[in-house]
Specification:
Layout (H helix, E strand, L loop, with lengths): L1 H4 L20 E10 L2 E9 L4 H8 L4 E10 L5 E14 L4 E5 L4 E4 L2 H8 L1 E9 L10 E10 L2 H17 L5 H18 L10 E2 L17
Antiparallel strand pairs: 1-2, 2-7, 3-4, 3-8, 4-5, 5-6, 8-9
Helix pairs in contact: 4-5
Length: about 220
């Protein structure tokens, strides 16, 4: 059972090209909208799903997508900045993929379906509309990254799992899973590879008064 968590009993893997892989992550476009009292952006990406990322997720270990954003003025100085994160997980027993955001969790029956959804990050909140001045032009700078659990992190987690199995840990399954999640988060916090991050992308400058609403997004 624990072997599946650390990739020792992984399912058949989706080829990276089938998941939309293409080298280093990149932002290929971004549209800006008004959604109620907020400015939001729908961001299209490419190159998120390398063979390494596909292998990590399908082995049962998570990966995290990070979208960095900054609202800038004509002087290119950042006025507001933030980070949107998405966790990608695969349940090797139930054969279900999860996309977890701060307020929602979506389920998918295939890696391809999950990857297609993640490659377009819809309606990411950038800033409250009230923070912007009318008839002033702004742009949004964006960078996307994806971080797999890898290398030493995988080895140490595999060692931790193996030790619990060999010792016949008396902790409940829930306690062991929570401990494993804490360990995974520890490695995400300290292991960030710059090669997995895109260059900065900047939208066209816009006047918030003239922005379309999200109702017009697909028109």
């Amino acid at each position: 059972m624990w072997a599946a968590l650390v990739g020792l009993a992984a399912p058949a893997r989706t080829p990276a090209h089938a998941a939309g892989a293409g080298g280093r992550p990149a932002i290929t476009g971004a549209k800006v909208f008004i959604a109620g009292d907020r400015i939001v952006s729908t961001v299209t990406t490419s190159g998120l799903f390398s063979e390494e990322i596909v292998g990590t997720v399908q082995s049962g270990l998570p990966a995290v997508v990070e979208l960095l954003y900054s609202l800038v003025g004509r002087d290119d100085k950042a006025l507001e900045s933030g980070l949107d994160t998405i966790a990608l997980r695969y349940d090797v027993w139930e054969n279900i993929y999860f996309v977890e955001r701060a307020d929602t969790t979506s389920r998918f029956s295939s890696f391809a379906a999950m990857a297609s959804t993640v490659q377009t990050l819809r309606r990411v909140t950038i800033v409250p509309l009230s923070a912007l001045r009318p008839n002033t032009e702004y742009a949004i700078r964006l960078s996307v990254a994806i971080h797999p659990l890898q290398g030493r992190g995988q080895e140490e987690i595999a060692g931790w799992v193996g030790e619990n199995v060999r010792s016949g840990s008396e902790g409940s399954l829930r306690e062991q899973v929570l401990n494993l999640n804490d360990l995974i988060e520890h490695f995400f916090a300290r292991d960030k590879n710059p090669a997995n991050r895109s260059d900065w992308y900047r939208t066209e400058f816009f006047n918030p008064v003239l922005l379309p609403t999200v109702d017009e997004e697909n028109k």
